[in-house]
Amino acid sequence: MAREGYINLHLAQHKRSKTPGDSDQMMKSRQRFLNAGYYQCLAESVAELIKQESICAVKTLLDIGCGEGYYLQYLSQIKAIENLNLIGIDISKSGVKLAAKRHIDAQLIVDSAYNLPLFNTSIDVVLSIFSPLCPKETARVLKPGGVLIMVGPGEQHLSGLTTHIYDQHQPHQGNFKLIDEQGLFALKKSTNLQQNISVKKTDIENLLTMTPYYWHTSPEQKKLLSSLPVLITPIEFHLRVYEKISS
Ligand SMILES: C[S@@+](CC[C@H](N)C(=O)[O-])C[C@H]1O[C@@H](n2cnc3c(N)ncnc32)[C@H](O)[C@@H]1O
Prior knowledge:
Blueprint: E1 7-8, H1 24-35, H2 40-53, E2 59-64, H3 70-77, E3 84-90, H4 93-100, E4 106-110, E5 123-129, H5 135-141, E6 142-153, H6 159-162, H7 176-182, E7 185-200, H8 201-210, H9 219-227, E8 230-244
Parallel strand pairs: 1-4, 2-3, 2-5, 3-4, 5-6
Antiparallel strand pairs: 6-8, 7-8
Helix pairs in contact: 1-4, 1-8, 8-9
Bound molecules: S-adenosylmethionine.
Residues 21-22, 30, 65-67, 70, 89-92, 95, 112-114, 129-132 line the site of S-adenosylmethionine.
């Protein structure tokens, strides 16, 4: 149990790398970018989907790959959904530490999506936003009839950024195929969300650094991006709600 209040269950003997998951630099950049509200529309849409699924009293929600905790904090603050027990898991200690510093009423754990430290059938809603997940482990912890809410990038997501990096926009692949192929979940609902955002000069570097595109950007391209007064880009999200198929 760390001083900040999270639990670290991903100890040296479980690790394949010294600092697994997203780096401290990525996490801090993502926190600054998300805190500026650029993806608030996504947080609102996710909350709306959860509200629609929350028919009865108390629900336990697990955010797999919760990162620095932006979505958990949003869910903990909105009045429309009450009685949510929140749990966040991420393999990155830096991320979970930042999430803990948000002082959310949530249980925060450093561990892997492939080895969830949770009892069978103990979770009502699993959230996975741009994060890796293991279909079998996710199905194991979900209650019968429990739902998995997944968010992945749409085709135009961040194309205003990637045109400065690649000759052709390269959309990022989501994890939907993995879920669709395993036969453990049935698709209940599917929606798309698209907007244009104007990223302020001071947030362009945060946006770049929080994505894997950072590693493909040359020093010249970084310089050009940092010289822009503003970056206008579409953001596009695919949101899917899956129900666990009872075996
Ligand atoms: C693209 S980030 C998304 C973070 C957060 N959901 C968000 O949208 O801001 C992917 C997250 O998955 C985490 N991650 C990567 N591999 C993981 C694993 N095996 N188990 C749990 N989390 C993992 C990373 O550390 C990172 O926080």
